[in-house]
Design brief:
A 6-stranded parallel β-sheet has the order 2-1-3-4-6-5, sandwiched between helices. A 6-stranded parallel β-sheet has the order 9-8-7-10-11-12, with helices on both faces. A 6-stranded parallel β-sheet has the order 14-13-15-16-18-17, sandwiched between helices. The chain has 3 domains: 3-164, Thiamin diphosphate (ThDP)-binding fold, Pyr/PP domains (Rossmann fold, 3-Layer(aba) Sandwich); 184-334, TPP-binding domain (Rossmann fold, 3-Layer(aba) Sandwich), CATH 3.40.50.1220; 345-525, Rossmann fold. The chain has 21 helices and 18 strands. The chain is an alpha/beta fold and 526 residues long. It is 37% helix and 17% strand. Belongs to the TPP enzyme family. One of its GO terms (molecular function) is magnesium ion binding. Keywords: Thiamine pyrophosphate.
């Protein structure tokens, strides 16, 4: 059996369902072996970066590890951005990368670059296979690293001659990552810390959602009765009307939650990743922190840890909920919750004369079912989504926030639909990000997928226009022309609709939701 066949057996053993990638000379043997697999579908895409985005979003939503594939040289370099995005957003991902024959590694050679050095800074682990006998070990190690808290990206570099070597090895047993729980002493110390402080404030991050601890969190919140704010990626943990829900924090400007956080005397930080927002932006007073996470706290002067509960977040909260937690009776001053609802435009009554992104988002909330997955591209609309849009369930809003990568939305829809085939999937993208990976609509159509793409057509990079005009009084290099998106969609065999009012948008959205067959595009003239 050739090594490529053993590699496929190892991938099957890890539960891989899909591999997103582009075929190149150095991975031909692997793709040939994949063609014989009854368990793995190879999905040939239009750009390697798009392949990594698909694998990233698939991993976030499926609970499995996403896998992408590229060949050496430009194929590998194209894969870097999507791999780095998965790493910073803590999505489980394995990048498989072809490489030149080992005999070409010691001299200047066509398309050869040191891929281990290239991928090491953007992965948890990057290994090149130098001995085919180690192939099962390297595969098991990569998937273990990718899935372990905190999840992220792993990369495997596979020289072409390795794939065609005869090999008799078998896959190693794939075991789930172990769960740990805090010691009884540390739980007692955390409970005493909570009792000691009158004004605790909860800050919730993506780690809580990753570890499926939302139910335990809600019990803890109801017992403690303290205010709660969440990061962009933890949206959906509480309904907006919940009295303790002080909505989203982590904005660069106008972060209304900061006034409430500043009144606290203790911050209870649960499952928060520093890549979401550094503590210096939200703990300027250096308030003491109760750190609850899967890993020990990072060292940071704005994150003064008074106690740590390190272990599986779900199990940790269960232990806390079994303890005697003191109920707190405080709310931030100045009717902050109502002020935030107004600032986030959650109380605004929509109208059809004009159309704002906030009104579009409210219409999506109103008209779509609970399980809807919304994928935000990066741009000014991302800020509006982080403020206004309220998913009805956790892990149903996908935002690139660690690397904040434009272009993720359209390929992300493919990963989302494969992970959640029965859920409506909607992308919201600006005209800056839309054309970066518009070609992946052909991939989606070829796969027979169904989702909706909403393109905001305003002929500019709106966020950068705002920033430049604020700093310099004018903007430069941030405006462009656009194609007719409806005709472009039609050229892909996709139904396209252009709308200019909220009424027109709601009509188009309702029509799509009533007959969600295939891919549709709605162009917003704003």
């Amino acid at each position: 059996m050739k090594a490529a066949d053993v590699l496929v057996k190892c991938l099957e053993n890890e539960g891989v369902e899909f591999i997103f990638g582009i075929v190149g000379t150095e991975v031909l043997a692997l793709v040939d072996s994949l063609s014989k697999s009854d368990l793995i579908q190879f999905i040939n895409v239009r750009h390697e970066e798009g392949a990594a985005f698909m694998a990233d979003v698939y991993g976030r939503l499926s609970g499995k590890t996403g896998v992408c594939l590229a060949t050496l040289g430009p194929g590998a370099t194209n894969l870097v951005t999507g791999t780095a995005s998965a790493q910073l957003d803590h999505s489980p991902l394995v990048s498989l990368i072809g490489q030149a024959d080992t005999k070409r590694h010691h001299e200047e050679s066509h398309q050869y670059v040191d891929l281990v050095k290239l991928f090491e800074p953007v992965t948890k682990d990057c290994t090149q296979i130098v001995n085919p006998e180690t192939l099962p070990t390297v595969i098991r190690k990569a998937f273990k690293f990718a899935a372990m808290e905190k999840p992220g990206a792993a990369a495997i570099v596979i020289p072409e001659d390795i794939l065609t070597t005869d090999l008799t090895k078998q896959p190693l047993a794939a075991t789930p990552p172990p769960r740990s729980v805090p010691t009884g002493e540390s739980v007692d110390a955390a409970v005493q810390l909570i009792k000691k402080h009158a004004k605790p404030y909860l800050l919730i991050g993506n780690g809580l959602v990753r570890q499926d601890a939302v139910s335990e969190l809600r019990t803890f919140i109801d017992t403690l009765n303290a205010p709660v704010s969440h990061s962009f990626k933890a949206k959906g943990i509480l309904e907006p009307s919940h009295p303790q829900n002080y909505l989203t924090f982590g904005f660069n400007e106008k972060d209304e939650a900061l006034s409430g956080i500043g009144e606290a005397d203790l911050l209870i930080v649960i499952g928060f990743d520093f890549s979401e927002k550094l503590p210096e932006h939200w703990n300027k007073k250096q308030l003491p922190v109760l750190h609850i996470d899967s890993l020990p706290a990072e060292t940071n002067e704005y994150y003064p840890v008074a106690a740590e509960l390190v272990g599986n977040i779900k199990e940790t909260l269960r232990l806390l909920n079994q303890s005697e937690i003191t109920k707190k009776a405080w709310v931030p001053s100045g009717n902050l919750k109502a002020a935030m609802m107004d600032a986030f435009k959650l109380n605004k009554q929509p109208h059809s004369e004009k159309m704002s992104i906030e009104e579009v988002l409210q219409s999506i909330e109103k008209l779509t079912p609970n399980e809807t997955v919304l994928i935000s591209d990066v741009g000014d609309h991302k800020v509006a989504i982080a403020r206004t849009y309220q998913p009805k369930m956790p892990n149903r809003l996908v935002i690139s926030n660690g690397l904040a990568t434009m272009g993720i939305a359209i390929p992300g829809c493919i990963g989302a639909k494969l992970a959640c085939p029965d859920a409506p999937v909607i992308a919201v993208t600006g005209d800056g990000g839309a054309l970066m990976h518009f070609a992946e609509l052909e991939t989606a159509r070829r796969l027979g997928l169904s989702f909706l793409v909403i393109v905001i057509n305003d002929l500019k990079l709106k966020l950068e226009v705002k920033q430049m005009e604020k700093k310099f009084g004018e903007s430069y290099g941030v405006r462009f022309d656009n194609p007719d998106y409806t005709k472009l969609a039609e050229s892909f065999g996709i139904d396209g609709k252009r709308v200019a009012t909220l009424t027109e948008f709601e009509t188009a959205l309702t029509h799509y939701l009533s007959e969600p067959k295939g891919i549709a595009l709605i162009e917003l003239l704003m």
